[in-house]
């Protein structure tokens, strides 16, 4: 089970937390569209509302009014193809001898089965096969013997993998980020309280101020009266393993993650894409929406270099079509690209065109788009991608399809160019990403672009001691 989600936690002085939680889940909707949920506590008891569907559909005004208390957590869950699964909707709640727990989790544990088996032998009964429930039970068990901070530390020492958590222990809201900081989590200040959220855009939505990122290995405990918070560095990380793909695709461009504004990162990656593999053409088109910031950086760098390449919004997106990526069949995914994107003929006809997207996964979008642009009269279509080739699955919380579905899984860049019928194809290098994020490769999780992971995953290599050959980032020009 992979949990790819958005989490939030709020403590307020003297106001119900349900509405601000609801608004912040709206701000995090892009991180999960399968289910949405809120758990609150009013000092006496826990209240919970968790439902399948988008945030706007999962709650009606009555549901929010019934969620009492000025402390609470929320969650949006990301779907994977074919797994519409009500039992995995969150926040996950458990009651135990000395209180109640609610948990929202973004990430994926690599040793959940092992801990789950041990807890089951001790008599814990599980209602799902999700790793969030394993964390909840482990923490509940530790809370029977230890105070809150020590109990969290014990759980952190036991669970391995990626996790950004917001937790409610009775009415106290906590935030925990795994020692490698794989998934984002930040803390912000509101006029009358504090908020923890996967992305700072959720804090902005509440008119709050971002204070900072929660540090890898850190626990943040919000005061239940909304007046402050305490922090504890429970695990000292040697290396981080921040997910670079949050910056490339997953996070909102208006969020700041690990001190970088995502929009500016994408623009800089676009600039570097021009520097590494710029190609002269009449016009540059972003693939909306994800390619937009990359394309504006790319076009700006080209123009700075004296190129008279034109930047145009030549592809229109139908905003009412949902995500094509998770559609179960290839046929449906292909049809959906056509439903979703339509070219503006006047910007394309008779021209050589460069399209810029953040990533190629299965290759469906680029293949369909190139056909579309050629049908609309483009003379040449060049493709530039703001990330390296995706060669391996993600085990840490992002749905990347299985290895044999990935177009770069077993093919060179040249072979991919041929398959998608582009006139040229180049990807961005890993170094450009590390440079832009001002970090070293060893502090990033690059599993999906190297096939080497910063965690021990059965059957996979770890990047802490193995080096694999690179497939490169650029194709040779198309033969006509
Ligand atoms: P594909 O059509 O399979 O090559 O997927 C690439 C397109 O999907 C690009 O336009 C990306 O913006 C988008 N994309 C990349 N990764 C993901 C993901 N994990 N989930 C959903 N969409 C994605």
TrEMBL record:
Cofactor note: Binds 1 Mg(2+) ion per subunit. Binds 1 [4Fe-4S] cluster per subunit.
Pathway: Purine metabolism; IMP biosynthesis via de novo pathway; N(1)-(5-phospho-D-ribosyl)glycinamide from 5-phospho-alpha-D-ribose 1-diphosphate: step 1/2
Signal peptide: none
InterPro entries noted in UniProt: GATase_2_dom, Ntn_hydrolases_N, PRTase-like, PRTase_dom, PurF, PurF_N
Domain Glutamine amidotransferase type-2: 5-225
Location of region: Disordered: 460-480
Short name of one Pfam family: Pribosyltran
Enzymatic class: transferase
Active site: 5 (nucleophile)
Family membership: In the C-terminal section; belongs to the purine/pyrimidine phosphoribosyltransferase family.
Protein name: Amidophosphoribosyltransferase
Organism field: Haloarcula sebkhae
């Amino acid at each position: 089970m992979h949990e790819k989600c958005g989490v939030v936690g709020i403590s307020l002085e003297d106001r119900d937390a349900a509405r601000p939680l609801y608004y912040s889940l709206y701000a995090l909707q892009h991180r999960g569209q399968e289910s949405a949920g809120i758990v609150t506590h009013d000092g006496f008891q826990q209240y919970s509302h968790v439902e399948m569907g988008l945030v706007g559909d999962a709650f009606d005004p009555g549901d929010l009014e019934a969620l009492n208390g000025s402390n609470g957590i929320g969650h949006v869950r990301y779907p994977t193809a074919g797994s519409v699964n009500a039992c995995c909707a969150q926040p996950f709640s458990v009651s135990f001898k000395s209180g109640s727990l609610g948990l929202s989790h973004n990430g994926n544990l690599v040793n959940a089965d092992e801990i789950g088996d041990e807890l089951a032998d001790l008599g814990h009964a599980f209602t799902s096969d999700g790793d969030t429930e394993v964390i909840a039970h482990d923490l509940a068990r530790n809370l029977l013997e230890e105070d809150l901070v020590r109990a969290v530390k014990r759980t952190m020492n036991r669970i391995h993998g990626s996790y950004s958590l917001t937790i409610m222990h009775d009415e106290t809201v906590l935030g925990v980020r795994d020692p490698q900081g794989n998934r984002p989590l930040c803390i912000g200040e509101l006029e009358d309280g504090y908020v923890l959220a996967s992305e700072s855009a959720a804090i902005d939505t509440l008119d709050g101020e971002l204070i900072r990122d929660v540090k890898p290995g850190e626990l943040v405990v919000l005061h239940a009266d909304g007046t402050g918070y305490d922090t504890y560095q429970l695990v000292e990380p040697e290396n981080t393993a921040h997910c670079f793909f949050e910056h490339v695709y997953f996070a909102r461009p208006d969020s700041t993650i690990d001190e970088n504004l995502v929009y500016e990162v994408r623009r800089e990656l676009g600039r570097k894409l021009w520097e590494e593999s710029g190609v002269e053409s009449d016009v540059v088109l972003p693939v909306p929406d994800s390619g937009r910031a990359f394309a504006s950086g790319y076009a700006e760098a080209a123009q700075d270099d004296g190129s008279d390449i034109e930047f145009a919004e030549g592809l229109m997106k139908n905003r009412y079509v949902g995500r094509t990526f998770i559609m179960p069949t290839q046929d449906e995914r292909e049809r959906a690209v056509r439903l979703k994107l339509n070219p503006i003929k006047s910007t394309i006809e008779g021209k050589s065109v460069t399209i810029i997207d953040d990533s190629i996964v299965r290759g469906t979008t680029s293949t369909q788009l190139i056909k579309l642009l050629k049908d609309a009269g483009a003379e040449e279509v060049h493709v530039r991608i703001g990330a390296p080739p995706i060669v391996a699955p993600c085990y840490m919380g992002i749905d990347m399809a299985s290895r044999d579905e990935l177009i770069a899984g077993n093919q060179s860049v040249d072979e991919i160019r041929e398959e998608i019928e582009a006139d040229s194809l180049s990807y961005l290098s890993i170094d450009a990403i590390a440079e832009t994020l001002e970090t070293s490769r060893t502090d990033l999780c690059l599993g999906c672009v190297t096939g080497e992971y910063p965690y021990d995953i059965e059957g996979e290599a770890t990047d802490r001691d193995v080096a694999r050959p690179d497939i490169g980032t650029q194709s040779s020009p198309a033969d006509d």
